[in-house]
Structure formats: C-alpha cells, structure tokens
C-alpha cells in the first residue's frame, strides 16, 4: 500500500466523493435480487456490486459476517472481491468489529498486512476490552499503512447503556475518542497522558494530507452529538444513512461541514440492484446529496 490510510482516504474522497457503500448480502436482499442463499448467490451478488461500484465510490465496506456464514466458500468470494475492488481504485474497509487482547488481537490485525490473502485498507474494531487492547492493531496499521475505525458512539438502541457509562469524569465513548486522538498525535503511545485538547485543536480531522489513519464510528442517527470530536485528527465513520433513517442533513447537524466524515449507506444503494446502472445511479444520488 502506498502512503498511509489517511492519505489514501483523503485522495479517494477528493476524487470520488465521501460515500462508503456497505456490502451486506443478507438473506432478504439476496431474495430481492432473485438469488439463492448459497455461496453461488453470494458470489453473484458480490461480483455485481464490485463491478458496478468499485471504480465509482471511495470506499466499499463488506460485512465479514455475511461471508463467514457460508464457510470457506464464502471467504473465497470475499477474497476475490477485495482484490478486484482495490484494483479498481476503491478502498476496502472490512467491517469485522474485532476486539481482543495480545496475540489474538495481533492475529485479527493481520487483515492489514499486504501479504494476507484478504488484505484490506482498514478494519473496524471494538474497544470493549479497553482501548489499550487494540495496540497490536495500531502497530500493524502503522507498519503497513492501514487504518482502524473504533466503535465509539453508535446510535443503535441501547448503545448508551455502556457508551454513556462514566470513567472518571468522561463517558466511555469519550475515552475511546480521546484515545484515538492520541493515536493520531505524533509521538504519543499508550500509557502516556492523553494529549491536551488545546494542543491539538488544529488537528480537527479535516480532509487533507494530514488526515490521520485512525478514526471512530459515530452513528448518523444520534439525536445530538454528545461527544467531543475536536482534535481527533482522523476520520469519522458515520453509519445509519438511508434505511436506518439518517440523512445528509443529519450529518451536517451532527458534524458540521468541515470535518472528515465517511458516510456509509448499504440497503439504500444495494436494493437498486442487480442492474449495474441502477446501482451506480443510487450511489450517485447519495454522493450528490452529501456534497451539495
């Protein structure tokens, strides 16, 4: 991989717009396309999405679970799709939500190694075992130019039960965001005091050459932004657009217009298939709305 993930992401957004399309081949969607719930149906669905969109959008985000459920044949479909998507210029964010400690986290991070058969640009991870548990993934990402998006303030029902829990005077969600801010701050390592927010105000996470490679997941359907993203230095992955009720107006309401936000849409684009032109048209409608 050439350059850091943050640099590649900023370049892709400048060239193609900020849209990330999730590849979520769940059973009802396969049925809508007239495809069987089988490795063959999975392959036909995935091939159609990659062929239509990999040369068109900045990021594709396959959900690993929908491929794992078909065993080794499902993973083979995903391996082929990732190679073809990246060859066509799309960045691939593997939605795996992995989180563990030590050598296990190190093994999960292998998805970011270029020699891995399923090598991707970035990975979603979960910090439930403590932000420091993700250090092996941070180290691998830095070594190979990969990226991470850490679950921080999601908007699914019940998320606040844990994400609003207090750790000292901060919520758990804010601790995660502050830790990721540290990862994007040169010279900071786990165990050091978190960088003072006033010292990194200029690292606001805007698109550009200095975009950091470590981001957070913040839902696009939150009623209000109850975390502080100032000085994050990296991108925000914002799921929930379209079928889950989020809109471009919600993005502007929550994040303003100057922040590096990667809005993600799945069903609202995928249900337009299997026609390639219809898939591209659906993606274009979202891109136009997001960049208006």
Automatic annotation (TrEMBL):
UniProt-listed CDD domains: OMP_decarboxylase_like (cd04725)
**Pathway recorded for this protein:** Pyrimidine metabolism; UMP biosynthesis via de novo pathway; UMP from orotate: step 2/2
GO MF terms on file? orotidine-5'-phosphate decarboxylase activity
A Pfam family matched in the record: OMPdecase
For this protein, the record's SUPFAM superfamilies field holds: Ribulose-phoshate binding barrel
**Residue span of the signal peptide, if any?**
none
Which residues are responsible for catalysis? 97 (proton donor)
Catalytic activity entry: orotidine 5'-phosphate + H(+) = UMP + CO2
Stretches assigned to the Orotidine 5'-phosphate decarboxylase domain: 18-282
InterPro entries, per this entry?
Aldolase_TIM (IPR013785), OMPdecase_AS (IPR018089), OMPdecase_type-2 (IPR011995), OMPdeCOase_dom (IPR001754), RibuloseP-bd_barrel (IPR011060)
Q: Does the keyword Ligase apply?
A: no
Q: Which GO terms describe its biological process?
A: 'de novo' pyrimidine nucleobase biosynthetic process; 'de novo' UMP biosynthetic process
User: Keyword annotations for this protein?
Assistant: Decarboxylase, Lyase, Pyrimidine biosynthesis
Give the E.C. number(s).
4.1.1.23
Which PANTHER family has this protein been placed in? Answer: OROTIDINE 5'-PHOSPHATE DECARBOXYLASE (PTHR43375)
Into which family does the record put it? Answer: Belongs to the OMP decarboxylase family. Type 2 subfamily.
What NCBIfam families does the record point to? pyrF_sub2
Q: What is this protein called?
A: Orotidine 5'-phosphate decarboxylase
Underlying gene: pyrF
């Amino acid at each position: 991989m050439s350059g850091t993930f943050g640099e590649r992401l900023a370049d892709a957004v400048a060239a193609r717009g900020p849209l990330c399309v999730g590849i979520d081949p769940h059973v009802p969607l396969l049925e809508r396309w007239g495809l069987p719930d089988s490795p063959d149906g999975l392959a036909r669905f995935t091939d159609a999405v990659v062929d239509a969109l990999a040369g068109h959008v900045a990021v594709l985000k396959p959900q690993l679970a929908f491929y794992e459920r078909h065993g080794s044949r499902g993973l083979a479909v995903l391996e082929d799709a990732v190679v073809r998507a990246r060859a066509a210029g799309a960045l691939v964010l593997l939605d795996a939500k992995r989180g563990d400690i030590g050598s296990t986290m190190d093994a999960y991070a292998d998805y970011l190694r270029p020699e891995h058969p399923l090598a991707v640009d970035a990975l979603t991870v979960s910090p439930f075992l403590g932000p420091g548990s993700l250090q092996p993934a941070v180290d691998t990402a830095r070594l190979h130019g990969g990226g991470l998006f850490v679950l921080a303030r999601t908007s699914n029902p019940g998320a606040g039960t844990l994400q609003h829990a207090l750790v000292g005077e901060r919520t758990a969600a804010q601790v995660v965001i502050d830790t990721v801010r540290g990862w994007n701050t040169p010279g900071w390592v786990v165990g050091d005091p978190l960088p003072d927010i006033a010292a990194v105000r200029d690292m606001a996470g805007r698109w550009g050459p200095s975009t950091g490679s470590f981001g957070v997941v913040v839902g696009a359907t939150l009623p209000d932004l109850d975390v502080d993203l100032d000085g994050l230095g990296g991108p925000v992955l914002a799921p929930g657009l379209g079928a889950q009720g989020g809109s471009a107006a919600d993005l502007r309401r929550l994040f303003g217009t100057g922040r590096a936000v990667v809005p993600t849409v799945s069903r609202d684009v995928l249900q337009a298939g299997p026609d390639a032109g219809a898939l591209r048209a659906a993606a274009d409608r979202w891109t136009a709305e997001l960049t208006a």
